[in-house]
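Hello again,

I reread your note about wanting to compare the complex against the isolated chains. To keep things tidy I'm splitting this into two emails, and this first one only covers the full assembly. Below are the input lines as submitted, including protein chains and any nucleic acid or small-molecule components. They are followed by the predicted structure of everything together. The single-chain runs will come separately.
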Amino acid sequence: MTTPRRAALATWLGGVIVHALLVVALVAVGVFLIVRLVPGDPAQMVLGLKARPEQIADMHHRLGLDQPLWRQFASFLGTLVTTGDTGESIAYHVSSRALVMQRMPVSLWLIGCSAALVVAISLPLAMTAALHKGGWIDQLVRVVPTVTLGMPEFWVGLVLILVFAVTLKVFPVGGTQPGIDGMLYSMALPSLVIALAQTPFIVRSLRTRILDVLGADFVTTLRAAGLPERAIRRHVLRNSLLPALQLYGMKVSFLMGGTLVVEQVFGLKGVGTLLFSAITARDFPLIQAVAMYCALGVVAVSVAVEIAGGLIDHRVRGRAAASRGGAR
Amino acid sequence: MNAAARVPRTLVAGLALLAAIALAVIVIPMVSPYDPVAEDVSSMLRPPSAAHPFGTDQLGRDLLTRVAAAGRVDLALMVGVEAAPFVIGTLAGLVAGYRGGWADRAITLLSDALIAFPFYLLVAVVAFVTGTGVKGIFLTFLIMGWIIFARTVKGATASLAGEEWVESARVMGFSDASILLRQMLPNVLSQAVTVLASDMVALLVAIVTLGYLGLGIAPPTPDWGTMIADGQSFLATRWWVSTLPGCAVVLVGVALALIGDGLNDGRRA
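Full-complex prediction:
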């Protein structure tokens, strides 16, 4: 690699990371403001209307509300950066970060299984649709999203429970079972719900891109060189994955939102259900911890996707710089 | 080619379906002998029949009347809530795409930070801050809804801004505001409207999901989401209580998706 090219790469990488850090900083401000934006007195909201004044004062102290705003923010930021925590949970009396970490595995399982399903469904469908353009699979791929777009995830979950758990009894109604096989068994329906919501977008993007690549010169060259069709397909697929990968990265925030709803439907003890119990209990530090870690996850994934995209295809780097830079 | 042939069939089908749904939602509660809210313990959880085409729910209310009444609430909310984000997002996108520079950078940064919050997490937090109901839904979409329009319009405007006629308009002394609103807006509006159709589906799904989670429209006001949640506990034996309101959501989704596809095809043709 020549030096100017390496320097350009470093500049681009630096830009991506600085942007991500700015986003994280804004997110932290937003999370901090959650407690301060509550109309009225948050302490009153936690304790109810019958709270005695000394209890209110005590809660003010615990939430740090007796300090001036800038000091509140400084101490919030200090704790967040040094310990990764947002304070002790009001309802559970333990570190909010510990609670989030304890619930994280189930949500990660759900995201992992649904991602695997998305890949398993999308790749063959998009490839077949593109190779047999206008065929019945291609028609199916075009029509199905029209119907599924308007399906609320929780409703799809209920219908799947009705069919596969209640009527056919092949999958559990909800909850998780021990062991890796038990986990896979419990995740089948929940991850299918998320995958069904994601696949249409991925298939559509992948199909368009595969069609573009199939028409490219290098494919004609490979064909002319007598490469077997299987090998050509592999090349086509490899050159088509990037936009779908980027789309998937953009959808990740939606994916995490999806787990909140799906966890609720299937009674999974993940981060999503933790958030709902935190909201019911008016547990401010815990709400902040969930919000902070979910947002960090989204930022981390989008940075990973952007870097992967840039390394695979350097045209992306120029384009990203242009869109961020504001060349007219 | 005549004008009728140029209107995509999907657009016509979508508009017809949406009109039919709107008509049903308006007319059914007016002609129905049942009240969507009043309870009738003598006829609880009846399966679909001639007297109750959709059956009745756990409080003996006619489900068809309730699905239609809920449609009034949810569809009116869908249209009302989407208006402000559409206008704000389109204007923000116009300015960012035309000006570039710091305006573009600020909008990108803000929207990236907002998008980092998983949608339903933000919805839940806003509902928590403002209380459940219409106000929370309105506020959430004001915060999140503009982004998709801003991004779409920004891209379209930026690609137009480099063209010669824009440059010549500037040289001729047209003000920036006049160039943006009179020249650029009409050119990028069709893209924004196409996004609007598919975004409305997402909005409806979100409104219904909020109702399901108990963070949206509160009972006794009928809402498809709370109706589906009501039926969940007897899903195994009384399938219609949850399934039929869900079908109503899907039907609206199909209509809007068809309109979106049709607009998209029409724009390309």
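For quick reference: The two ends of chain B are 12 Å apart (CA to CA).

B.
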